[in-house]
């Protein structure tokens, strides 16, 4: 299934389960009803920023939209986590590594940013994040303070503070983002 279609179906299913309308989500996120409808029907893709807004309004971690549905919770080994089929038009890969764990206490994600990816506005949401750079040079902005992280550098941040990450280099960046919603 195409990534854009999968994300849209997950948004639609969760929105309906919570008995919310497109208008409710639009008012809470500032995203247009038209955009949200097109996303749910797989006719457009979402940026990481818009997914963060949608996930906050639906009270889930953004990785929810990338995971497979499964009622059983079990320990799993995830091999070969990088799948270029997850590459979106926005030049990032956001891979949930929680496997088949139901309602995990934290969400581990592998994020790969292509050169120049994810330029945009800061955002904030509930919870905390731990970023650990595996490859490349990651520029982060937290509460209007900019810093650069290199391989094996990490940062632990309060997600309620405005924050964002960027790839200002000409090479891809790989990093782990471990987050909570609490």
TrEMBL record:
On whether NAD is a keyword of this UniProt record, the answer is: no
**Which organism does this sequence originate in?**
Virgibacillus dokdonensis
Residue stretches making up the HTH cro/C1-type domain: 11-65
Superkingdom, taxonomy of origin: Bacteria
Question: What is a single cellular component term in the Gene Ontology annotation?
Answer: cytosol
Query: What PANTHER family does this protein's entry cite?
Result: HTH-TYPE TRANSCRIPTIONAL REGULATOR, TRANSCRIPTIONAL REGULATOR
Example of a GO MF term: DNA binding
Output the SUPFAM superfamilies linked to this UniProt entry.
lambda repressor-like DNA-binding domains, RmlC-like cupins
Gene that encodes the chain? puuR
Q: What is this protein called?
A: HTH-type transcriptional regulator PuuR
Q: Among its keywords, does the record have DNA-binding?
A: yes
Keyword set, alphabetical order = DNA-binding
């Amino acid at each position: 299934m195409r990534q854009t279609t999968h994300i849209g179906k997950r948004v639609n299913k969760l929105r309906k389960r919570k008995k919310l309308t497109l208008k409710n989500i639009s008012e809470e996120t500032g995203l247009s009803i038209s955009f949200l409808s097109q996303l749910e029907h797989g006719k457009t893709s979402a940026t990481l920023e818009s997914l963060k807004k949608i996930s906050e309004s639906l009270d889930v971690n953004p990785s929810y939209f990338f995971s497979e549905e499964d009622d059983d919770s079990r320990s799993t080994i995830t091999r070969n986590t990088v799948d270029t089929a997850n590459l979106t038009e926005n030049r990032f890969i956001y891979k949930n590594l929680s496997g088949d764990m139901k309602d995990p206490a934290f969400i581990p994600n592998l994020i790969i940013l292509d050169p120049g990816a994810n330029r945009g506005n800061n955002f904030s949401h509930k919870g905390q994040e731990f970023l650990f750079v595996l490859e490349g040079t990651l520029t982060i902005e937290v509460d209007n303070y900019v810093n650069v992280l290199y391989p094996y550098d990490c940062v632990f941040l309060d997600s309620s503070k405005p924050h964002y990450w960027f790839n200002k280099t000409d090479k891809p960046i790989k990093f782990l983002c471990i987050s909570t919603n609490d």
